[in-house]
Design brief:
Length: 287
């Protein structure tokens, strides 16, 4: 049933079948499924990503049932569960070319807080051992958190980090996990910090080093981005990849470091905090 639904999403390359078993086994989150006449016609997932942060993901509707408010019902059901039982902050990501989702978010009290677009650059092979990166050690999570929060680059990311297609404010637990997984580094003796993970790129037919955290002064941005390309080669990846803020300030550094925009759209991040939507605003749309 799920495969029948998702084979129509993203030209058959939907990620939901790959995470379905994990979603079913999630002890903290909630998986919601809409069924009509024995068919799964829609689904959505509420996931916890930190003690204070929740994520709405996987909102899907079968093409045969689009326009029948299925997405709205799932979205509002999961939103209601979150507000009654969990609270704090709730976020979601959607493509810039999905205005129906934007309106649904605005109508239900969400505010757009982030706008990111992907950039990619080929990896650059350099002499082994010459890269200016040092892996963070256990016990450095608090230092990494404080450095990231104070960095000049963070405001461009709306104070959020990329937890593999989920965005949230940095938390010490995120850095502790990255340290355990050996995927976070100090750059140039503490002038910058970078976290990344290896992903598969089907278009390139190889591995991609995807950035999760970027923290530095703006004057160091170009150099750090260039060294990130070298780090990708060191980790046997074909290219480096990041979701960059859709703002003009960082783009000259990206271009100077050899990056090119790899998608003509962008990712919008919407946020809702508990109690932000007054009763008299429900049903209205903000512009």
């Amino acid at each position: 049933h799920v495969m029948e639904l998702t084979k129509h999403i993203w030209e058959g390359n939907d990620y939901v079948p790959d995470v379905w078993e994990n979603w079913l086994a999630d002890p903290e989150g909630l998986l919601s499924v809409a069924v009509y006449d024995g068919r799964i016609v829609g689904l959505g997932k509420l996931s916890r990503i930190s003690p204070e942060d929740w994520w709405l993901e996987g909102l899907r509707v079968h093409p045969d049932f689009e326009g029948r408010k299925v997405a709205s019902h799932i979205h509002e059901y999961l939103l209601g569960v979150w507000e009654r039982s969990f609270g704090s902050a709730l976020r979601l990501a959607t493509a810039s070319f999905r205005p129906a989702v934007h309106h649904l978010c605005e109508r239900t009290g969400f505010t757009r807080v982030g706008d990111y677009t992907p950039f990619k650059a080929d990896a650059i092979k350099v002499e082994s051992g010459s890269l200016p990166f040092r892996p963070l050690q256990p016990g450095e999570a608090s230092d990494a958190l404080n450095f990231t929060l104070a960095s000049e680059s963070m405001p461009f990311y709306s104070g959020l980090i990329n937890l593999y297609w989920k965005w949230a404010p940095p938390h010490s637990s995120h850095f502790e996990e990255m340290i355990k997984e050996n995927r976070i580094w100090w750059w140039r003796d503490g002038r910058g910090l970078l976290a990344a993970m290896i992903d598969e790129d089907e278009d390139m037919g190889g591995k991609l080093l995807t950035m999760n955290v970027l923290a530095c002064n703006l004057q160091d941005l170009e150099a750090l981005l260039y060294d990130f390309r070298c780090l990708a080669a060191e980790m046997d990846c074909l290219a480096s990849f990041l979701q960059a803020p859709f703002q003009p300030e960082p783009w000259p550094a990206l271009e100077a470091a050899g990056y090119q925009r790899s998608w003509d759209a962008s990712i919008y991040i919407f946020e809702r905090k508990q109690g932000e939507l007054d009763a008299d605003k429900r049903g209205s749309t903000r512009i």
